[in-house]
Amino acid sequence: MTDLDIRTVPYQLHRIATIMTADPHEPFEAEGVLNPGTAWGPDGELYLYPRIVAKGNVSRIARARVIIEDGVPVGVERLGVVLAPDQGWEHGRLNGGVEDPRITYVEPLGIHVMTYIAYGPLGPKPALAVSEDTVAWRRLGPLHFAYQPDLDSDLNLFANKDIVFFPEAVAGPDGRPALALLHRPMWDLDWLRPGEGIRTPAGIDDERLSIWIGYVDLEAARRDVRALTRVEHSAMIAAPEAAYEEAKIGAGPAPLRVPEGWLLLHHGVSGPVPKGFELAHGSRYTAGAILLDASDPRRVIARTPEPLLAPETAEETSGTLGNVVFPTAIEEIAGRHFVFYGMADSSIGVAELVHSDR
Length: 358
Known about the structure:
Number of strands: 22
Number of helices: 2
Strand order of the largest sheet: 10-14-13-12-11
Oligomer: single chain
Strand content: over 45%
């Protein structure tokens, strides 16, 4: 439950610049660059991992060095592709892609964890890759959600998106140290079998796509990093509320630890939402924020009633999918926090996150 009368979200986003736009001479970027992850390399450089889209809507994950001038990101130097849909489960006969990476440096494990969406023969499925040097990424495979009898459902039946890990360990629902992650199941099964319809789990009355939390056993992951793919104790924590997110919501960058709790930047969608996995032409994607309790991130303590960033510039209103700002990464540079976000599924922008009282 949201305790909006207890706290507000004292943060703002200020647009800075567009730092990457699709190169029309690069075939892998023919349909856009968007929705990046970020990671600091052992060389002290910041790297961007954009989703790049080739003709036919085939996505890859690239790597680029972020050019920083006077403490502000201003551009990128392209360094090639780090992940392509070359595994059988990452593509179908008429589709394919590794999409929308979110990268978290998971401090208790000392590794970078990349979540991404494998667009395979059964639609979007979440998957993981890990890296120690930010150059080579090792696939761990698809996520597997433990069966929970109280849900009267199997979360593995459903497409799932917007997966992101917390950077620090938290107390799990069973009291043991755990690694938390956010995810967003998609309940409509008509794409798989016409007439099957929307099948929400027990106790979930809102059919709209919402933010869920799940947990990975920390000690198991320390023994074997492949345990990161085994998710337990899933529960919905935030459904659409405000007008700017009336259609659906999803997590953005890795939650940021702030004095007020965990700050989660998210995207809210208003307007029409098509069935299946088609582009939502006519919808409007904006960026908002949610504060989660520091000791129990299942508990929402505040939400922004209005978006922090909405599509206004030409790069944000016109592109492969117009009217989109889609935050996916946040990094601290010289004491300032910068948010990297997709612009109309065609470019990548950067905005500064600032405290409202500063």
